[in-house]
Amino acid sequence: MSRFFRSGGDDSSSESSSDEEELYSGEEDQELDQEQSEEESDEFDNSDEESEDADKDAGGDQKQGAFRFLRDNVASDSEGSDDEVRDKVKSAQVKRLDELETSIKQIENGQKNGDWALISTEFDKLNRQVSKLPAGSRIPKPYIKIIAEIEESVNEALAKAKVTPKKMNATQARALNAVKQKVKKTNKDYQAEIAVYREDKDTYLWSSDEEEEAPQPKVPKAVKFDETAGAEEVADDGFATVGKGGRTLQYTPESIFKHLRGIMETRGKKNTDRLEQIKVMEKLNEIANTPYQKIRVLLTLVSARFDLGTGATNVMPLDHWKAAEKELSQLLTILSESKEYVVLENVEEWDDDEKPPTLQPGEKYIKVAGSIVSYVERLDDELHRSLQSIDPHTSEYIERLQDEGALYNVIFRGLLYYETLKKDETLDVPQDSVNRIVMRRLEHVYFKPAQVVKTFEENCWKSVGEDVDSTTTPRAQALEPANLVNVLCAYLYSNSEGILRARALLCQVYFLALHDEYYKARDMMLMSHLQETVTGFDIQSQILYNRTLVQVGLCAFRKGLIYDAQNTLQEICGSGRQKELLAQGVMMQRYSQVSPEQERLEKQRQLPFHMHINLELLECVYLTCSMLLEIPLLAQTGSSPDVKKRVISKTYRRMLEYHERQIFTGPPENTRDHVMQASKALAAGEWKKSISYIHSIKIWDLMPNTDEIKEMLSKQIQEEGLRTYLFTYAPFYDTLAIETLSSMFELDATKVAAVISKMISHEELAASLDQVTNNVIFRKGVELSRLQSLALALSDKASALIETNERTLEQRTQGTSSAFERQGGRGRGGHRGGQRGGRGGPRGGGNPQRQAGGTQFTGGALGAAVRG
Asked: Which InterPro entries does the entry mention (predicted)?
């Protein structure tokens, strides 16, 4: 047995010596350990020494015994020694330092070879290794040295690239730029250490940190929360909440302002964890035990939540929006209960974090810096952006839209708060703030039906109680939607100016038109003269103007005022850009070059789906009105070619021409096809068929009182069918009985007589109405033939062409014309003008301008009858 241990002892000594050699060779690696804190470095050193002693004392003998057994059966002594070296266990710290040194060597090789791709990869790996170091440990000095060297190499490479004309490989150039950005971002955090390295590069790695006293960790105290604030009390057993960096976080009512100050200073900075800040402020809100503390915390907390929705594409998360709405409601509740505290915009912030402000002698209020109206507007804007980003055809949109009720309640309570502030004249409350919040309330009301507005108002008044009333919108008037809109608009008319007043007027006109008050809406729109100044408004106000214009046109259509409806809708629907002008979508044209910035702005302007005006219904109304006006006009110009041709709707004419050019016309499939087929039937005199086509359009079901709309359209088509028939066939009649027309178009005889009388008075029809026999007597004067009319038209066009040519010739030969031409005017042109005047004389006297209906007379019906 003793011989076994003696033989094992020799091998053990050789093995331990090899271990010592390996440890000595790894001393340079372990120099990185000096950058750790003293406590951790001692811990790691002790663990390494214990493991080495264990290997030397006990483990060595045990291994020798095992190797003795293996040597007898399988392998030699040398093989056992190699296995022992290979199976040596390294501590986690040594492994990290080995990986660090490997990455540093790879980066140095990349610097020698100019391989920036390798440097970029290893630099990322190096940063990941450093980030895994224990919290509170020192940064290894080789890491500081290599990042400083990388920065110098990047600067040298960039300077060399500017001087030498030879271009770098594209891959290496990209890698160089990537390393440049990474170094710029990383070295910001280690500027002090890099400066120390650059002061003395030679001795930097060999300088010891043992002389520097490491800060002794403080014994953490137990965190005690105020029981009244609802926080849990932590037992004093040596544990505490530890934040980032190993620092103890103590949340007490006395330290609230200190934490708020730290949060406010870090807001907006890069690498700031906003969610962590919000959690801290939520905890502060729980432990706040005075109204002033709660007001300050809530103001900061709501602002921090709004930071989550910054940027053009970032939408505020739903849970944070709801939390912000509740916290804003809580803030308004505190302000209404603690009336000595007021939140105003034009107040300096309180800088003393040790003690809160107190009421001074002669003062009634403690003023806190903040803006309630800004928070209300931001909450409204975030809901608007959220609805823009959600697919409107999903249940998620409906659920999100339900939050508008809570938002309207916040707007209502905010207005009540500003009204209480305005009652005290000592407070300098800006009128603009009140106007802005009134405008927000109006913008949530003007496009909604009266019943929805009434529901909103009832819920709001229930939430504030029976003893609260408003000076701007009294309870009795606010519960009636029409009165509410009038009161809000009247307030803005008298207290605001410029764009707010114009927007208030547009909102009131929209509301009136939506509820079929056409004449009021039309008169307000015309008297405001906004059509003359709307081009100077901002984009959102121009969109509101377009929406109001369209709503007035739809109201006129519902009232049966076809001409007014078509004339109003012409500006929007005739442009072909309804979707874009109403902010209901972006029209991507084929050859348009839109920058990403413009496209982003267009998307931001889009209205949520629940505010849209149905574009298919709008097109149907516009085309129907155009049909009822254009078909009689086409019949009038067709029967009298010399009547001046005019176009009411170019859009409708193009669609009609395209429809007529089609070789085969199938049954109508969409709204446009139905209107075109109805137009064709009406022009042919088949008014019943036209009515059936118009009634079969399903989009009419979206309008209120659908049956009344269809009945109105039937009467309009009957009357326009009668006018079309008279225009088309008047040249072929001498007399026509009213009863015949009445039975033909199923109209009352008095209605037929009224239509014919109107046409005669407007000189559209050359006829007279015999009330004794109830007949229409058509008059025919000296009528030109078709050939004569075309010859005169050709002559006029030729004369105009000659005048144009001579005018062009005169401009080119100006200064070179003869004295005769200067004295005699235009020479040949003057002679030709005289001839033309002679020829035109008899035409003007003997053949006056032909009137519609295939007859020729001037001076109205009585004048023609006298001359006859």
From this structure: EIF3C (IPR027516), EIF3C_N_dom (IPR008905), EIF3CL_C (IPR058999), PCI_dom (IPR000717), WH-like_DNA-bd_sf (IPR036388), WH_DNA-bd_sf (IPR036390)
